[in-house]
Amino acid sequence: MAMVDDVIISSTYAEKERYIGKYSLGRGFQMEQLKRLLATFPKKTISLGELEELIKPWIHTYDEFSKTILQLEDERILEMVKSKGRTTRSPSLAFHYRIDKSLLMGDFHKELQHYRNMIHPSIKIDWYYRKDPSVWKNDLPMIMKIDNYLKRYSFPTEPVPAPERSVELVGDEKWITDGGGKELLERIGIFNSLHIIPVSEPLMFAVNPTKVNETTQLHLIVENKTTYQGLLPVLKETAFSTLIYGSGKKVISSIEQFSMQYPVDAHHHFYYFGDIDREGISIWYFLTKKQPVSLALPFYRACLQKDAVAGKEYQKERTEALEAFLRFFTAEEQSQLKSLFEIGMYYPQEIIKTHELQQIWRESNWTT
User: Fold this and answer.
1) Burial of 277: CB neighbours in 10 Å, binned 0-12, 13-18, 19+
2) Alpha helix (H) ranges present in the chain?
3) Which of 111, 224, 274, 327 has its CA 20 to 30 A from that of 68?
4) How far apart are CA 200 and CA 253, in angstroms?
5) pTM of this prediction?
6) What is the pLDDT of residue 190?
7) Is 241 helix (H, G, I), strand (E, B) or coil?
8) Listed residue (164, 187, 166) closest to 176, CA to CA
9) Which residues pair with 204 in a beta bridge?
10) How many angstroms separate the CA atoms of 121 and 147, rounded?
């Protein structure tokens, strides 16, 4: 190894053989690959040492290294940070560079436009224009498989379970459910058009027969079984069409079954009541990513009138979930809740007795 103005150049025969074998670079290294790495580099500036580490697999001499950096200077992709100066070795390189990512992304956007013109028109790739090229590169193989399927068969007309559709699209039965396939299909805007039956636990709920014909229908999701059993006897006395047992985190996936299990044409509005702890708040937050769900505030405010319980300090805090949750409350209530979590306290749903639960559900105004 030889040190040149804080730049370490790999020079052993074994390293060269390993890198050449791995990348098949021939006389030079792949400039396009380097540009992709620069486009996804986490900082706006890069030191000469960081550049060397970034492209170490492809360089074998200082001459190759300097020519490459100077080429990027000529293309104005790398711009010298003048305050940092340059090396004394010839050819001289800057100690620090500013990366012009707009030039790098320009090539990436041209690539996206190329694919937009050739793939099935229903596949939308606008989302990728705002992301690093590496995200597109990772998704592209599956997108091309989906493109091939749509061009051969068009969109299916019959709903089938996710594993079956997954095999048809990409040849992997677990891709949609476990391999990020659902998220990719949502990104490119075709998930709903593929008639995929979600593979999840059935949604458990009771129905109020007096409300099934309403044009606007309310649905209450509760986290725990005790609360569900306590509220169930008065369901017909409320303004709600269903009482849904969330069974903890399971509701995050099983809510996808609602429209098939309750195929009633109406405007559906969901409320959620869970434990006031980090886990309960996170369940509600991630549920909102699948289905708009309001907090059942009368229940939560009743909890805040009780004495909190110690415990649940082990639960992981998700800042974004807590912030979203707190926005539903007054400034005074927010302060109370923050203090609650700071001292390791929480409110279980069961802190409200059955009689009070039922009274709150029957008598609260849920339509304003």
Assistant:
1) buried
2) 13-23, 31-39, 48-55, 62-74, 101-118, 133-153, 162-170, 175-178, 181-187, 225-231, 251-254, 258-261, 278-288, 297-304, 319-326, 331-342, 354-363
3) 111
4) 6
5) 0.57
6) 96
7) strand
8) 166
9) 245
10) 9
Query: Any idea which fold 2-99 has?
Result: Arc Repressor Mutant, subunit A (1.10.10)
Q: pLDDT at position 342, please?
A: 86
Amino acid at 333: E
Q: Kindly report the backbone phi and psi dihedral angles of residue 347, in degrees, each rounded to the nearest multiple of 5, phi listed first.
A: -120, 110
What is residue 38's predicted lDDT score, i.e. its pLDDT?
Answer: 86
Beta bridge partners of 98: 45, 79
Q: Cis link prior to 91 (omega < 30° from 0)?
A: yes
Answer whether 2-99 and 204-363 agree in fold: no
**Phi, psi for 55 (deg, rounded to 5):** -115, 15
pLDDT at site 39? 79
pLDDT at 5: 45
Structure token digits, residue 282: 């996170």
The stretches in the chain having pLDDT less than 50 are 1-29
- With H, G, I as helix, E, B as strand and everything else as coil, classify residue 205: strand
DSSP SS3 for 83: helix
Provide φ and ψ at 276, rounded to 5°: -90, 75
Place of tokens 């990436």: 108
pLDDT at 203: 92
Please give the structure tokens belonging to residue 359: 């009274």
Q: Which two tokens stand for residue 234?
A: 């008065």
What are the domain boundaries of the chain?
A: 2-99, 103-197, 204-363
Compute the 3-state secondary structure of the chain and give helix, strand, coil in percent, each to the nearest 5. Answer: 55, 15, 30
CB atoms within 10 A of CB 49: 14
Domain 204-363 has CATH 1.10.1520.10: no
Q: Classify residue 133 as exposed, middle or buried by CB count within 10 Å of its CB (0-12, 13-18, 19+).
A: buried
Q: Give the Cα separation of 47 and 56 in Å (integer).
A: 14
